[in-house]
Amino acid sequence: MSVARLLWSPELLRYDFGHGHPMAPARLDLTMRLVEAFGLLREPTLEVVEPKPASDAVVQTVHDAEYVAAVRRAAATGEPDPARGLGTEDDPIFPAMHDAAAHLVGASVAAADAVWTGAAQHALNIAGGMHHAQRGAASGFCIYNDAAAAVQRLLDHGAERVAYVDIDAHHGDGVEAIFWDDPRVLTFSVHQDGHTLFPGTGNPADTGPWATHCAAVNIALPPRTDSARWLRAVDAVLPTVLREFAPDAIVSQHGADAHGNDPLTDLSVGVEAQRTAARWIHDLAHELCDGRWVALGGGGYAVVDVVPLVWSSLVAEAAHAPLEAKVPLPESWRQAAEEMSGLPAARTLGRGAVPWQRWSEGYDPSDATDRAVLATRRHVFPEIGRDPYLD
């Protein structure tokens, strides 16, 4: 059994909405170039496996058959289907749309297979994390919901409880909606408040249909939440709810768009804070579910100075070969990144540790982030017998 399996093929770069679209394949290309430049592909704890596209039957485990047919039809004809979110500004049609999106699903499902069968403790698909797609519609750059497909695959294998953890700046609405009525799945999302950012959902009161337990946990943070407050928010909720839920496996989505340099969001969460959150999720996977952890990419549109740094760190973390903070970025990678993008590349991986305070050290009612965390705790913790104010 390998420690970590990375599902990767250059074919995954075909998920391409065209010139000028924020979901640029360069995000993935530069990430894999940095993974290689850091020497991670030579780590004995990491193996790279080429995924295959998912069949229609696999895609239809989380999508309506009529929708899959509509995606195929739109890709073949180029005709928009706005009722299903196809041919919109967010999700323009391109000829390889079905095949490329199915390939993302195939990679995430293969990751789920690997961790459940024991072929690997951890598995990654950095091209995945398309968390906005609904059962019958595309949304927010997402055609098929590979994250939901990975969760469903684990359930189909026999997992009794799967936790989905989403740290993208946007609410993981598609995964939440798909599993809203399934008590075997807990969805956790920490994101910018939906009143100020797409998709407009993810309120702390949205905890699911069940009277006995939460199906969904949402932390809706105010714009400009910084690294220290973001880490405080995650720590104030995530470990408690996961320990109470006791999952058999964790699927996490690591959209890097909470960073202050991201052009589409208004949070201010640095690379080091996102690396820290990945480490926490990794540790919880070992603590709670024998290491069964599927890690996915997601959003992130600062394609040179953020996304490759966050996701190469994620690969290193999963391979048990974590990169040191402030490590210089390889000069060969910096030159390639600047040539590809025309933008200046970062010089180091991050700025080092982020000082932050645990929730138990005191609640500040004047702090907007603390008020957001408290709103979540008030809605979630009473259902699992916890103090809604302070531990």
TrEMBL record:
PANTHER family for this protein: HISTONE DEACETYLASE HDAC1, HISTONE DEACETYLASE HDAC1-RELATED
Membership in a protein family: Belongs to the histone deacetylase family.
Record organism: Isoptericola chiayiensis
Pathway listed: Ketone degradation; acetoin degradation
Name this polypeptide is given: Acetoin utilization protein AcuC
Domain Histone deacetylase per the UniProt entry, residue ranges: 21-316
InterPro entries: AcuC, HDACs, His_deacetylse_dom, His_deacetylse_dom_sf, Ureohydrolase_dom_sf
Keywords, alphabetical: Acetoin catabolism
